[in-house]
Write a structure and sequence with these properties.
- With 462 residues, this protein is an alpha+beta fold.
- Helices cover 43% and strands 18% of the residues.
- It has helices at residues 7-32, 35-40, 42-72, 77-98, 100-109, 111-135, 187-194, 197-223, 261-268, 294-300, 328-348, 437-442, and strands at residues 226-228, 236-239, 246-249, 271-274, 285-291, 302-304, 308-312, 352-364, 374-388, 393-406, 419-422, 452-457.
- Strands 11-10-9-8-12 form a five-stranded antiparallel sheet. Strands 4-5-7 form a three-stranded antiparallel sheet, with no helix packed on it.
- Helix 1 (7-32) runs antiparallel to helix 3, helix 1 (7-32) packs antiparallel against helix 6 and helix 4 packs across helix 5.
- It starts with 6 loop residues before the first helix and ends in a 5-residue tail after the last strand.
């Protein structure tokens, strides 16, 4: 006689550890799915992680016991399947516990798969509760007798060996002999059933469910994405000089679910990289690229509508490198300002009269365009009354003077200062001859004493 009721304590042990595992798994997954909750509940997270490890270790222990029970005590199919199922649990959660950080991130990132695993573990616990009730004969299900050990008060008597003569003892009390029940489901019966109408309907339903689940997983993995336009309503501003300009990304109006704390954190962490920043010129197409965590985007199932976008560069200040590049409209404004300054000065000096002579553009010779100084110079011919020592009387004389201003494409006559000075020769006498005007101008401080390029401007004025 062989009693199998000792399987009940093992069922109770499996029930306890499966409940520990399923409860702790759901709790940690819920906490890991919310970054802010995770940060605020670190001590609670540690406690649940320890609880989870206890469940994993317990499942490993009961898995070993199940195999030993199957090999040494009673080889019923249900115990073998049970051992295989718990082997899957042990391997999966064992790998998860190798790296707790990645484990928690994974649990929070794939909520569907986590839920399925939790349901399976919890279902295993319920199954063993059912088995214990069946062992105590609280529940009577004879259909499953072939897949479960004998229950309370039940014994199994092995049949007598072959070629052994059995003498019937009529004086001994009659004892009921129970033989192991044959499996209700066999391979032949299953094949025959699937060939029937009902079998085909059930098989079709199973296939539909499997295909629906696989289709859902494919959709959830590859198509169920939150699309974010990181460049929505984005404007890019530019500052600096043509050839050495910088771009700045203004705040873009990204549309997203603001109630989702994780998504809000992800959007807030997006930054932008600007190609060739600090070397931009007007007319360039600058590429702005979104910089973000690819791993976080994968976990949140977020994709960017565009990874990068091009913008046209404009509005950079142009420092003209030659007189031919000068904007005619700005030149006219500067000329008007110089003419006005000349008129104002003549008002207080009634003995002199000024007429416009020529204009020149002075460009400082330097490779660093940011520090390059450029001037627009307007030279006037001035007639005045001066004493002639040879004739000992006042005579009309001529001298040259100039008005100058900083000049580039950002010129504004209301903001720029218009300086005034007279031209002198090497003897510090007034320049009175037209031929000496350019030579004297090249030696002025605004021309860096001969180290700047001086060009005549031929733009007509009104």
């Amino acid at each position: 006689m062989k009693k199998t009721y000792s399987f009940k304590p093992l069922c109770l042990l499996i029930l306890i550890f499966d409940l520990i595992l399923s409860i702790s798994l759901w709790r940690i997954a819920a906490m890991a799915s919310d970054v802010f909750s995770l940060m605020g509940s670190l001590s609670s997270l540690i406690n649940w992680a320890i609880f989870l490890m206890v469940g994993v270790l317990g499942v490993i222990v009961v898995t070993v016991l199940l195999y030993l029970y199957y090999l040494k005590t009673e080889k019923v199919q249900g115990i073998l399947w049970d051992a295989i199922l718990h082997t899957v649990f042990s391997v999966f959660f064992g790998f998860q516990m190798i790296n707790l950080g990645d484990s928690l991130q994974g649990l929070g990132g794939n909520q569907t798969f986590t839920t399925i695993m939790g349901i399976l573990v919890f279902a295993s616990a319920l199954l063993h509760l059912f088995i214990m009730l069946r062992l105590d004969q609280v529940i009577h299900v004879t259909v499953l007798d072939a897949y479960l050990p004998a229950g309370k008060g039940q014994t199994i008597q092995s049949p007598p060996p072959v070629h052994q003569t059995v003498t019937e003892d009529t004086t001994a009390p009659t004892q009921e002999v129970k033989t192991p029940a044959e499996p209700v489901i066999t391979k032949e019966k299953a094949i025959a059933f699937l060939k029937t109408k009902n079998g085909k309907m059930i098989l079709g339903a199973v296939i539909v469910v499997v295909l629906a689940f696989v289709g859902y997983k494919i959709w959830d993995t590859f198509f169920n994405k939150t699309v974010i336009d990181a460049f929505a309503n984005m404007t890019v501003s530019y500052d600096g000089y043509d050839g050495a300009g910088e771009a700045y990304v203004d705040e873009s109006d990204i549309d997203y679910d603001m109630t989702n704390a994780q998504l809000a954190q992800f959007v807030g962490d997006i930054s932008f990289d600007i190609e060739n920043n600090g070397e931009l010129s007007n007319g360039d197409k600058v590429t702005v690229t979104a910089v973000y965590s690819k791993e976080t985007a994968k976990q949140l199932k977020v994709v960017l509508k565009e990874e990068s976008k091009q913008f046209d560069v404009s509005g950079l200040i142009v420092k003209y490198q030659s007189a031919s590049e000068i904007d005619k409209t700005l030149y006219q404004k500067a000329y008007d300002a110089a003419l006005q300054e000349s008129t104002n000065s003549s008002y207080y000096d009634t003995d002199s009269k000024r007429t416009f002579y020529k204009s020149y553009y002075i460009k400082e010779n330097t490779e660093n365009i940011e520090y390059q100084r450029n001037y627009l110079v307007f030279v006037f011919k001035e007639t005045y009354q001066g004493y002639d020592y040879s004739t000992h009387q006042d005579v009309e004389k001529t001298r040259y003077m100039y008005y100058y201003t900083n000049f580039d494409s950002s010129y504004d006559s209301d903001d720029e200062y218009m300086g005034e000075s007279r031209l002198y020769n090497d003897s510090f006498d007034y320049v009175e001859n037209e031929a000496d005007v350019l030579t004297s101008l090249q030696k002025q401080s605004i021309a860096d004493y001969g180290n700047s390029k001086v060009e005549e401007v031929t733009i007509p004025v009104s």
